[in-house]
Design goal:
single chain; mainly alpha; elongated
Length: about 80
Amino acid sequence: MIAIPVPPSGTVPPQAGSQKRDELARLDSVAKRLQVRKAILEREPAAVLVGDILLAGIAITLIVGMFAHTRSPEP
C-alpha cells in the first residue's frame, strides 16, 4: 500500500500562498476519500462485491434473454 503524507489540518504556514493551501486542502480531501474507501473494503471483502455485481449481471442477462425468446445454452 502506498502511504500518502498528509499534514494535519491547520498546519499551513501564513506565508504560503492560496495555491499552496488549495493544494493541501485537495490532498487532504483525497486522503479522506481513500480512507473511507479503504474502510469499506476492509469491512466487506472485495470478492463479495465483485461476486454480487457478476451475479446481478448474469441474472439480468438471463431475464432479458427469456423475454427476447433467446435459448440459453444447455450443458
